[in-house]
Amino acid sequence: MASDWDVRTRLVHAEAREEGEPLNPPLVMSTTFRADPEGVGFSSTDMGEQSPFFYARWSTPTVRTLERRLADLEGGEDALCFASGMAAISGLLLHLLKPGDHLILSDVCYAGTAEFARGMLRRYGVEVTPVDLSEPQELRAALRPTTKLVYAETPCNPLLKLTDLAAVSALAHEAGALLAVDATLATPIGLRPLTLGADFVLHSLTKYIGGHGDVLGGVIIGGKSALAALRQEALVHLGAVLHAFPAWLILRSLSTLPQRMAAHAATARAVAGFLETHPRVRRVLYPGLDSHPQAALARQQMSNTSGMVTFQTEEGPAMARQLARKLKLIQYAVSLGKPHSLLFYLPTEDLQRSSFQLPPELLARYRAWAGDGVFRLSVGLEAPEDLIRDLEQALSPADAR
Ligand SMILES: *Cc1c(COP(=O)(O)O)cnc(C)c1O
User: Fold this and answer.
1) Ligand 1 centre and the CA of 210: distance in Å?
2) Residues enclosing ligand 1, CB less than 6 A?
3) Domains in the chain: ranges and CATH
4) How far is the CA of 87 from the centre of ligand 1 (A)?
5) Ranges 24-28, 49-53, 63-67: which has the least confidence
6) I need a surface site. Which of 11, 45, 194, 284 has the fewest CB within 10 A?
7) CA 144 to ligand 1 centroid distance, Å
């Protein structure tokens, strides 16, 4: 594939085709493949990059095609797909960290990641420190000789704070640590962490990349030898592999990713702009608005500011009930990156009890952004004027109880 083609072209014309070959990638559902008795052995350590397909927990043709395209999209040497975003995250952390190692984790990040690190990883003897990575000097202070990995999420869920990846990767590497970045909210269309120094990029393929709300998946992109070792431990032994059919659905979604992200971002900007002017809205956080505290970093680091908007209103819980009742188009539901717009209220106290459990000074910072709670709006592919009208009628106090 010609690397000087624009990403839109590369995602449609991923491979050269010979006469008679299909234009779309084939779906290969077989779990086992005819083997050569002189060829590979039965252990995962016998599998190399050149090994033929053998058993579906190692690799399959359809998933491999998806991995090659995702690696190309991120500018990485290789990619490894998993059954879900969490399988990719837990696989990477279990593979890289051992008892006594120190992990620095974004203080605000996907709840599953925070809970996994604080629960299972600590139980296995890994030291875990939450750090506000939107302030690079905080990272400098938290790094230790035993720090093996810095794990960032940018924009982070649900506050949409950003991490300056060039600054953070330089600090991590200086201290001998690796940097992994969950860039699910940004997608490869908005952010290229490997070009800014990250060692690994992770995505939940369930979100924008799958993009249609009908498939779970995860991916890690990085260097060839690091991913070969990861394939053995985190895929072959932990076993949370992506199946061929979801991989095929995600391949189908990839060809429209740039256009979908352009639409998500343009509509999110319009909706966020409307929310900013609404009298019942206290604060709006969207990296594509000048009012975002890190708008300059967003402009410098991101080429698409994605479809996630976070906002605060007066009386959060009462407003959550009102919006869930009155919104007609926007669905009150978790998750993000779907054609449908989705809204969910995240009370600070609940999150603090269940997911984040931040020390007082980080909690105070969380509150400075989120107050008692925030609405997380995943702006879908509907027309912006319809979404704005829906929000306008649902926010209005006229028949609020
Ligand atoms: C959804 C999400 C995950 C987890 O992905 P699943 O596919 O649901 O397992 C991880 N990180 C971020 C930022 C997410 O939004």
Assistant:
1) 12
2) 84-86, 110, 112, 153, 157, 182, 184-185, 204, 206-207, 216, 218
3) 7-254 (3.40.640.10), 257-395 (3.90.1150.10)
4) 9
5) 49-53
6) 45
7) 28
